[in-house]
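Moderator note: this is an archived Q&A kept for reference. The question asked for a predicted structure of one protein chain; the sequence and the answer are reproduced below.
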Amino acid sequence: VSCAVGFAAPYGHAATEEEIARYRKIWNPFSAGPQLVSSADVQPKGQYFFRPYVYGEIGYGRFGNAWSSASQALSQQLSSINPQVEFSYGITNSVEFEMYASEVSWWQSSGNGQAAQNGHGLGDTTMFLKYRAIVQQDDTWWPTLTNAFYVSLPTSDWAGTPSIPGGFAPLGRLPSTHFGAPEFTESILFRKNIRPFRISGGI
């Protein structure tokens, strides 16, 4: 479904300069969100930005494989931080290049007869292209629709960074890939402004 819709939208319609100009004048409060899913909007041609993030996690318990609120304490607690830098550049008014570079540090307590462990180093790198096929207008219900193609590079593995226990760094972006594993992902992003709400998401 993702591929069918994703390829149909860009080639069935392309945002015109007039539509983009109208969109820039409608109600659209400035913000950096959404955080985990990339925005359906793209940078204007020639414009770029750098944006730093720091995500973290503390693991002290786990749930079972059934629907239940009961949890069980972990014999080894895990803490980690995952600083990231986002770079975004508008290639055209409809195409954007984006990249996330990261570092990861983690600490695991002793337990189960094992000594305490820790590690830090270069994290994985995600690069992607976004193509905004449809730009929302204030006189229609159509949202902004953007096709995104992600490539996750196992730069942590190439740099010899110790793998975080459990295999996943703190959730700081989507797609959230297995630590040290390459991945290719496609998504469809959307945004619709219905004052006073702004609805964003992705599939």
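Archived answer notes: The two ends are 10 Å apart (CA to CA).
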